Amino acid sequence: MQGYVVRLWELGGAPTVVEVDGSGMGVLKAWRSSLIETDTGPSTVSDGVVQAAVDANEIQTFRLGDYLVFRSHLDHGDLTEWSSFVQ
User: pTM, whole model, 2 decimals?
Assistant: First the structure.
């Protein structure tokens, strides 16, 4: 898999909402991932920022995708157009 992997661990003992700002890295899309970094589903991205609700003491992993990830999907026939990647 390509992209940036971000792992979050809530240590305060209370549920919280966090934002991961990937706008400076050109992040266009994000996926929730397992601890072994297998994608488990899409995550919401707005202007390069991923927002996630994290339960008390929970660990969450995300894979953030930029243009290079899109290009890889396109080259392997997984996508046919740009709009299907950024939706």
Answer: 0.72
